[in-house]
Design brief:
Number of strands: 11
Radius of gyration: 30 Å
Helix content: 55-70%
Oligomer: single chain
Shape: elongated
Number of helices: 24
Mean pLDDT: 80
Length: about 750
């Protein structure tokens, strides 16, 4: 591996014009494809294998044209103090608004508050229900605009009007956060390299890689039903790893220059050593992202595969375009320890050399491994304690900021009709096999009325064939509460008895039931996903490090950091600690996608840091250093770069904390704190402490396994020959082609 990549790096350095032309051509091709591709709508959303989805599918078959999974909106009206909704002027305003709402190609139906019994008992609040033919993710912007305009007209007439439901749901933009991340990355890279040019190389290649990846996703979006949200994760992860991978190769290149090697030789060795780590780090990220398919949620699977493709592009660019750009830069990229004249390089050269911070820290850890290990483990363990109280759910309008119309509509409906009105349950009764469907419908409504936490049960509404009916159930508790979840399970349990009596099948669906089923599905998939990802990565790391204990330590350290991060998320978003500082206006269950999302993303990034840091230790150990000294050597060369990479990632993810969307805010905080725990506590403290305690045993591998494993030579042992011994003529190019 190292020898092949060494030759690839030198080839790219020498044939830089050709390499640059290839990547520019690919970027242009992807851009043209994205520009000429048909515009993609939002991808269809389905959750195979859940009862709620089964009920939606049944409704589409038995109630054709009813748009069972169509978007809904509730336009909520409130009169000024002392007035009633039945007053002539207010009634005229509401009727005019209902008429405006009914205009639109995507509108399926609009319910009049006065004929649909949608006026509160005190007569101060009413709502009009709007049903659309397409889902909220597929709704056109023109329909949303018409909905807002109708509400604004009613406001101008003197009513308080707010809009709830999923019709206003839209994927939040992330452009500002990406700019913040790139700006912080630029500052950190300049400080790390002491050179504007060297700092610009990782940024340039990362942007090119993300451009190719996201443009390809856009070009294929219509054909593969990828949707407009699929590129979000690809952009975030592609930018993250693209900067990281280029950062490590450029850093190694400068270290090789500092040892006196010629620039082409330094580029080859940088790609041969750091590039080997890039390949295996990239593989761990790809495994984690592609592994999201085990959850069997199509949208999540597509997002994972798209992001994995962007990571592959980032790896290839780091291995080829970075050495090509280094060839263009020439002497303007300084050896390690030197700064550009613009950043004070002349003054820095006069200062006496002294051990860097990584060397001093590693030396301390090697001297005090037990104390450092205990402090790190106890600290992460304390942070993980709140995770024991983890409650999972999906956000609804009640978790929105109070400044949004969705949240204000939610509160008005709770005030006028009770908290459960915001999360009605739709019960679907399939009586096709029943001898007496009408009796089955009556049996269902009567049984549900007797359940705890039920406020209202509407009469069954059968289809034209009379073999299927829908029953709407209004709970007494808010949609995201555990009480409502218990009611859903109680209805399903009662359905088992009804089926035994009448042969009619009872299914519970609706947005609230769908959220509950999605949460359960994600929860059930967490441990299989964790076992798959960690297991495959464990085998991969055995090949990389040729050790059993080092991969085991890496996996255990990752689990510790993820549990600590989940504990921090629970403390802030569920318990309310520091909620004001984080801008959390409403505490509640943690988003059900959060644990599996954190496992996938953080595992990939954590293994990046593990591979880059420990392979340098392994390299020093293989080349003859004692275990303790190898740890110090690894930190001397890698700690500064890993620290820079972690700070960049934390800055990128922290930018999402400022989002008004509670889900995005939670993801940003969770990923940022997870990277902080993993990079600075696990990789910088726990890992060297464990390696110091294990000594030579850390690199133990059974002889039979050593013989069975392929020798990928990540440490670059094959590059120990003198710099002049490698072929430098065109024969090397031909040999590379043969390989």
């Amino acid at each position: 591996m190292a020898t092949f990549l060494y030759k690839l790096g030198r080839l790219a350095f020498r044939r830089r014009h050709f390499v640059a032309l290839i990547w520019v051509a690919l970027l242009t091709l992807a851009g043209v494809g994205a520009a000429s591709a048909p515009p993609a709508g939002n991808s269809s959303f389905s959750i195979p294998g859940t009862e709620a989805q089964k009920a939606f599918d049944l409704l589409q078959q038995r109630f054709p044209g009813a748009s069972a999974d169509g978007a809904t909106a509730r336009v909520v009206f409130k009169v000024p103090g002392g007035e009633k909704m039945t007053d002539a002027g207010n009634k005229a305003t509401v009727n005019k608004t209902v008429k405006e709402l009914s205009h639109g190609s995507e509108v399926a139906s609009v319910t009049d508050p006065y004929t649909g019994h949608a006026v509160s008992k005190d007569g101060t609040i009413a709502y009009a229900s709007v049903k659309y033919k397409v889902s909220g993710m597929e709704l056109e912007d023109s329909s949303r605009t018409a909905l807002k305009d109708a509400a604004q007209d009613a406001r101008e007439a003197g009513l308080t009007v707010e809009i709830g439901g999923d019709a206003l749901s839209a994927a939040p933009g992330t452009g500002a956060t990406e700019v913040i991340g790139i700006a912080v990355a630029a500052v950190v890279l300049v400080i790390t390299f002491g050179s504007l040019l060297a700092a610009g190389l990782p940024l340039l290649t990362a942007i090119i890689g993300v451009g190719i990846g996201v443009s390809t996703v856009t070009a294929l979006a219509h054909a593969l039903d990828l949707g407009t949200t699929t590129s979000t994760l690809a952009t975030m992860i592609g930018l993250a790893v693209g900067i990281d991978y280029a950062l490590f190769i450029v850093s190694r290149y400068r270290a090789e220059l500092a040892e006196g090697r010629e620039r082409e030789e330094a580029a080859g060795r940088a790609v041969g050593t750091a590039g080997s780590a890039v390949v295996f780090a990239g593989l761990t990220v790809v495994i984690a992202l592609v592994g999201l398919s085990v959850v069997n949620i199509p949208m999540l699977t597509k997002m994972g595969i798209a992001a994995a493709g962007t990571v592959v592009v980032a790896v290839l660019i780091a291995l080829t375009m970075i050495p090509a750009l280094l060839g263009y830069a020439g002497h303007r990229v300084k050896p390690a320890g030197q700064k550009s004249r613009l950043l004070g390089g002349a003054r820095a050269a006069k200062k006496p050399a002294r051990p860097n911070m990584g060397t001093r820290w590693a030396s301390f850890v090697v001297r005090r491994p037990v104390a450092v290990l205990l402090l790190g483990v106890i600290g992460l363990g304390a942070a993980a304690v709140p995770a024991a109280s983890l409650e999972l759910g999906l956000p609804d309008d009640g978790s929105q900021p109070v400044s949004t119309t969705q949240r204000r509509a939610y509160d008005l409906l709770s005030e006028g009709f009770g908290p459960g009105f915001n999360g009605p349950l739709m019960v679907v009764v399939d009586a096709k096999r029943s001898d007496d469907p009408k009796a089955a419908f009556t049996e269902v409504t009567d049984d549900i009325k007797g359940l705890k936490d039920v406020v209202t049960v509407t009469p069954a509404q059968p289809n034209k064939a009379g073999d299927t009916a829908t029953v709407t159930v209004i709970p007494n508790s808010k949609p995201s509460s555990a009480t409502t979840e218990d009611l859903v399970h109680a209805i399903r349990d009662a359905g088992s008895g009804i089926k035994a009596k009448t042969d009619a099948e009872v299914l519970v669906t609706g947005s609230t039931a769908m959220n509950i089923d999605v949460s359960q599905k994600l929860n059930d998939a967490l441990f299989p996903y964790l076992a798959l990802v960690v297991g495959l990565a464990f085998l991969l790391l055995i090949v990389v490090f040729r050790s059993v204990l080092v991969p085991l330590k890496a996996a255990l350290g990752f689990l510790l950091s993820v549990m600590a991060a989940l504990g921090a998320v629970v403390a802030v978003f569920q318990w309310g600690w520091l909620s004001g500082l984080m801008g959390v206006e409403e505490t509640g269950p943690v988003m059900s996608m959060m644990p599996i999302f954190m496992v996938g993303v953080v595992f990939g990034l954590a293994m990046d840091y593990e591979v880059f840091l420990v392979t340098r230790m392994r390299e020093a150990y293989v080349h003859g250093e004692k275990p303790g000294q190898a740890i110090v050597t690894g930190f001397r060369h890698g700690a500064r770069v890993v620290t820079a990479a972690a700070i960049i990632m934390i800055a990128v993810f922290s930018g999402f904390i400022g989002s008004s969307e509670s889900m995005i805010k939670m993801i940003g905080f969770g990923l940022a704190i997870a990277v902080f725990f993993d990079a600075f506590i696990v990789r910088m403290a726990v890992v060297p402490a464990v390696l110091a305690l294990l000594g030579r045993r850390a690199w133990w591998l059974p002889k039979w396994l050593d013989r069975a494993l392929p020798n990928v030579d990540v440490e670059g042992e094959g590059l120990r020959t003198e710099p002049g011994s490698w072929p430098k003529d065109l024969d090397e190019d031909r040999e590379l082609v043969r390989v």
